[in-house]
Design goal:
The chain has 97 residues and is an alpha+beta fold. The protein is globular, with a radius of gyration of 15 Å. It starts with a strand and ends with a helix. The model has no long low-confidence stretch (mean pLDDT 92).
Length: 97
């Protein structure tokens, strides 16, 4: 999947591939082209009561450019966490299917 979005005032383009699938419990997508040196996103789904599902995201990434990239990771980590938390709140507000 290739997507484009504006983050931190810049337009980013990233292509990810689903590299693992254990339906319906989890899947993993990893960057194959994009701004990160490496980016891996694990999506886990666990039962959480009657007709509810808990979605757990685990993200591991590294920025390019060596030491400068490691400094950028100090900003990117909290930014990505906030981005995923906002997405999850949005998903939680959608009507049930």
């Amino acid at each position: 999947m290739t997507w484009r979005a504006r983050h931190l005032g810049l337009v980013w383009r990233m292509t990810s591939r689903i590299t693992e699938l254990e339906r319906p419990r989890r899947f993993v997508d990893e960057q194959v082209r994009g701004p990160f040196h490496a980016f891996r996103h694990v999506h886990r789904f666990e039962p959480a009561g009657d007709r509810a599902t808990l979605m757990i995201d685990e993200v591991a990434f590294s920025a390019p450019f060596g030491p400068i990239g490691r400094l950028a990771e100090l900003v990117l980590g909290p930014y990505l966490r906030g981005l995923i938390e906002r997405r999850n709140r949005h998903l939680g507000a959608l009507p049930e299917v």
